[in-house]
Design a protein that fits this description.
alpha/beta, about 250 residues, two-stranded antiparallel sheet, 6 helices, about 25% helix
Amino acid sequence: MKLLVCIANVPDTTAKISFKDNNTKFDETGVQFIMNPYDEWYALVRALELKESLGGSVTVIHVGPAANEPTIRKALAIGADDAVRINAPDKDSFYVANQIASFAKDKGYDIIFCGKETIDYNGSQIGGMIAGLLDLPFVSYATKLDFKDGVATIEREIQGGKEVVEVSGPFVVSASKGMAEARIPNMRGIMAARTKPLLVVDPFESEELTEYVKFEVPEKKKECKYIDPENPGQLWDLLHNEAKVI
């Protein structure tokens, strides 16, 4: 099988978030970046599992500058065979999806994997856009994927339960929690990653559909107050006189 995994470079969840240029840009100063967990833990690892059981190759693709290559090397250390970096800033979802679709359109990939979303913007748009641009089926929020005799059986999250679908031929899938168990790169993989192929591709002209007007940090959550279960009068007093909801 020929598998392509889209990976994103995102701020670590412990990073302190701030903005600059009158709150119109994210301030990356001092921020540690990591591979998007949904891309790493579920999409990449499931692609590697399929390769290990069915044969083939796993390529990772990333849209971003050279500074993001440590994230790409980590994917190679986990087990990807080679990598592609489209040398452009990840301007918005459509721009990124268009770059990836343009690269993938004539490469014959059987499955294109994405994480269900990135943990910074939580847009969940890239996979669907790639599928649309390539005119391929798209299955989102997949929690399980089996592949046999050219047909993929996929379980996916839906409101109130799960749905099982079958898809054949090339398709795009976004991976959610449960798709695979996360892997930690071992020393052999880290050493091998240094010499694995990393192709750098120039971007093509593509429009952007998003304009960032202003960022704001959400208000801090109010401090919780704990009420003694033996003192319901205190709860009533707080709801009536402080919260003013009764």
